[in-house]
Recover the amino acids of this structure.
C-alpha cells in the first residue's frame, strides 16, 4: 500500500468489529498511526495490509447500487449493507420486507 496522507479517512481491520472507521494521524509506506472513530475511540498503529481507503463525504455507505462506491472492497460493502438506506421502512416489520428475487 502506498503511503496515506494525514487526515485521510480509512477502514482499519479489527478482530471484534471486522472493520472500524478511522482517520490517519501519520502514515508511511509500511502503515499508519490512526485515530479510531466511534465509541471505542483511541489511537492504533497498523500495517498497510490492515488499512483500506474509506469514503469521507457524508453518508457514503448509503448507496442503492454498490457500483456507486468509489472504493469497492470488503469494508465498503459491509458498511453499505448496514447503512440506514437498506433498513426496512418503519411501516413494515422486518418479516414483511420484500426480498430480492434471484434473476436467472
Amino acid at each position: 500500500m502506498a503511503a496515506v496522507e494525514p487526515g485521510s479517512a480509512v477502514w482499519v481491520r479489527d478482530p471484534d468489529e471486522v472493520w472500524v472507521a478511522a482517520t490517519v494521524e501519520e502514515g508511511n509506506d509500511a502503515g499508519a498511526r490512526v485515530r479510531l472513530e466511534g465509541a471505542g475511540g483511541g489511537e492504533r498503529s497498523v500495517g498497510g495490509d490492515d488499512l483500506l481507503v474509506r469514503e469521507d463525504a457524508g453518508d457514503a455507505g448509503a448507496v442503492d447500487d454498490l457500483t456507486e462506491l468509489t472504493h469497492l472492497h470488503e469494508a465498503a460493502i459491509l458498511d453499505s449493507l448496514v447503512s440506514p438506506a437498506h433498513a426496512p421502512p418503519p411501516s413494515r416489520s422486518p418479516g414483511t420486507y420484500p426480498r430480492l428475487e434471484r434473476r436467472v
